[in-house]
Amino acid sequence: MRETVSRSVVQGLSGWGKALAAVILATFLLGYPFVFTGPFPQHLMIRIFLFAALAQAWNILGGYCGQISLGHAVFFGIGAYTSTLLLIHWKLSPWLGMAAGVLLSAIATLLIGYPTFRLGGHYFAIATIAVGEIARVLVTNWPFAGGAVGLYVPLLPEGLRTFEFHTTKVPYYYISLLLLLAVTATTWLLERSRAGYYFRAIKADPDAARSLGIPIHRYKLLALLISGAFTAMGGTFYAQYVLYIDPESVLPLMLSVIICLVAVLGGVGTLWGPLLGALVLIPLSEGTRVYLAGMGGAGRAFDLIVYGALIVLMSVFEPTGLIGLWRRIQRALEVRVSYARLAAARRGEQAVRGPGGE
User: Fold this and answer.
1) Handedness of CA 30, 31, 32, 38 (dihedral sign)
2) How is the chain split into domains, by residue range?
3) pLDDT digits over 133-180, tens only?
4) pTM for the complete prediction?
5) Whole-number Å distance between alpha carbons of 138 and 77
6) Looking at residue 142, what DSSP letter applies?
7) Rounded to 5 degrees, what angle do the CA atoms 122, 127, 129 make?
8) Which stretches within the chain are classed as H helix?
9) Could you read off the pLDDT of 9-53 as tens digits, one per residue?
């Protein structure tokens, strides 16, 4: 009875601790741009939010469904180019352009998914690389989309309606945070839904999932549809944030690789893994770009060397990523606490019994 009461007390304290941590985190995120008012700290957090959202979107397909895509830049480019072209040629709001980008990404899902999902393992990954490179070459040679020169987003009056803010980065900060919260909430709901269980079954053993009556192609397309939609939203946000796009910035293979690496380093198939990966990799990338830029090119691509080293180390020592490392540390701490409590209990028993053990 005493053990049951103590366990319930511990669980209650743990619940209060989580609630307090959530309040502290929310306060930090909401107040960050007013504490760190410099352009670089705000830009860094915007980049972290954006790539965490992109990695979380990739995680739905690659982490939960087991389909390793290296062509997600296609959806990113669709979102960026759709909103920009609609604004330039038809004066449509970037918010409507974002919705149109999501619709076009759904169409691209059908065109890409049906043929490529018949491939398995590394063949699917190679096919997505080919799709991404084909899209980049087509846009590079398409004059309507600016070709290799790219497109400048027209400067409009500052405001939420026009999705342009020229004097401050704070609105971009909160919009990118909302995007991250939206994709994370969607992932959390998917984890607990029938589709999420089907995704994990497909990842574990597609043949067994098929034998149980799970329409694996339909659910693979669903995972790609959700993943591509959020990635296209990220593309529109990037276009409005930078106000310039070209094939080398929104359709490169390296963008797809970095999105994948962020999720893999943090821990694929987990809710918090992509966020941890972005918290580590994006500051490394931005730090090396800014602080090593004046070394005669010595800092160029240094972040990619760090990426590779981290991925190799995590693959050897902790294949489940940073989230797996955190769980291992957590288990080790729990074991040490349990041993400490057991030792304290034994000392207490010995003190009660006395020197003679009675």
Assistant:
1) positive
2) 31-253
3) 999 999 999 999 999 999 999 999 999 999 999 999 999 999 999 999
4) 0.90
5) 12
6) -
7) 95
8) 2-35, 39-59, 73-90, 94-116, 122-140, 170-191, 194-204, 206-211, 216-242, 247-250, 253-266, 273-291, 302-317, 321-353
9) 444 445 677 788 888 999 999 999 999 999 999 999 999 999 999
